[in-house]
Amino acid sequence: MPKQIAIYGKGGIGKSSTASNVAAACADEGYRVTIIGCDPKSDSSITLLQGRRIPTIMDLMREGIDIKEADIVFNGYKGVKCIEIGGPEPGIGCAGRGIIVAISLLKKISRAIEDTDLVIYDVPGDIVCGGFVAPVKKGLVNEAYVLTSGEYMPLYAANNICKGLSRLEMTLNGVICNSRGALNEEKIVSEFAKEVGSQLLAFIPKDVLVQTCERDGYSVIEKAPDSQIAAVYRKLAKSIMGKRDGKIPVPLDDSRLRELTRI
Amino acid sequence: MPVKKEKEPLIMHPRPSSIVAALYTLRDLDTDVVILHGPPGCSFKHARLLEEDGMRVVTTSLDETGFVFGGHDALVEVLEKVIERFNPGRIGIVGTCASMIIGEELHEAVTQVQPDVPVIEVDVHAGYRDNTKGVVMALESALASGIISEAEFERQKALLKEATMVEKRHGAASKEYLEPNRGDLKYKVAGRLLELLKQGKKGLNILNAKKETAFMFADVNLAVAQVAEKLGSGSNIVNMANLDDNVGLPKNRRNAREIKEDLKEKGFEIHHIIGGLDEYPVAGNTADRIIGEKYSDYDFAVISGVPHALPMDNIKNMELFSVTNGPRQVVPLKDMGHTHVVVEIDLHPKTLGVSHIVESEFGATLREMVKDA
Ligand code: SF4
User: Fold this and answer.
1) Which residues of A are catalytic?
2) Longest alpha-carbon distance in chain B
3) Which residues, 6+ apart, have CB-to-CB distance to B303 below 8 Å?
4) How far apart are CA B44 and CA B349, in angstroms?
5) Which residue of B45, B91, B186, B262 shows the fewest CB atoms closer than 10 Å?
6) Confidence (pLDDT) at A127
């Protein structure tokens, strides 16, 4: 069975950059990788496709297309299979239901989530409703990761996600810190990870290179393979691919969370 | 290049829902209790009707709170209650629009409760164009839990495809809006039929009914045979029926056997078995073939049940008497060329929970009128 992971975290914290760089790094190692973007923005795969935006499953559904695998599964950097779920127009319909429908359609017409070594679900900002956790509930995710910085809001979101995971009896397999340059950041996030029953897997320093490459439509792995930041992503990829047991997280209460950010 | 789906014609009259179709399928599989996971009012009329057939249907009664906060706990609670109260040998859980939209996982509750009897979970809502989708989904789960064989599953799927086609060609899914219609006056149609019998015309008497509805439709054919006998033209009538009791899900086999026994007792001889009770979408083809080979020179045909599933090829020159239970079936049947169309109102509710033939209005009319003939 492939490793099927979901990366959670507050909106805007850098999930898509992390997901695509990890995907690229794993592809470099020779793994077959599938990345499934669940965000309406549909930018999980854009840096694996040289800046090209692919049609989302929901775009095609809306247009009444008889969807075939070739319409939604695209080959990106080193054969990474890229799929974007998309979403309805803001304020209309139900995005959660969209994810449920898209995932079951995908399962029906493609083997991209079976015939692979790693599936990465780049899920929307927060677990907000039943539909958003469809990949987890449908048994399509066996490892969950939380991405956060050391600031209060992202940590608050991360803690909320831990609540959701424990509710679903889903294990947390690691916390990743995407640095925003907060004071004592690494220490704060590593302490948070420990207290929820997990561990800090990687500290990704702030580096403009990531944004520069993204703007051109590339991951740093592809565009700046020898950079320091690329090495960080590679290390993270290696540790994700390694075998490690997760634990159902124990969320912190709000006052402890506040205390933590003051370390 | 992505290909656009062919746009199916808009159909505006409400049709049977896939949720209900799943419920009926679970009944045919001899499920003891079904839990509808959703709003208390969902599919209530059919749920009640199905209880006539001995299957219990209960609901988790999700309300606004359930829609917002999820209905997992309610489902667990109802599942536990069902086990305790009914001690069922087989349980079904059926989704609804509401629970499916909010992403309820029926299986989670089953995992939590761990019943020691099989549970058939059907992740269905009512948003499918063809209600047969609900049947397929129920059968898929039954297959997954080892309740039916792969062969039976494939057989059922092929039949459903045909059933859908039959409805699209000449049935309730054939037109944008179908006006309900009560059909021709029974005594007029009966009068015409008696006239033909008196003249010694040769007729086909065909039962091609869907599942339990055969309990009443069979009475129509029985009455035709009885009045023909009375008028001395019994030997001019050929009887065909889809009452093969060797095929189909448990309930259908049982019902075919029960109807056959009743008919036999009343001296009704079936000359040709054209299929099983679930084979109504294809049994018409068998009948058509037999007619082509042996009876194409017959004068009239009485077809009860799903008359529009019988191809017109070999009967188009006959005077056709159709008996249906669908008020929306009248117009399509007339369009096909059926001269007389009679509707048995409320047939379905009267045929649930029975194990013997039920009197039909048309049959009763024929029997009454022959007394004066
Ligand atoms: S819309 Fe769906 S869930 Fe609601 S009552 Fe009708 S069938 Fe049931």
Assistant:
1) 10, 15, 41, 126
2) 71
3) B204, B206, B208, B310, B320, B321, B322, B323, B338
4) 14
5) B45
6) 65
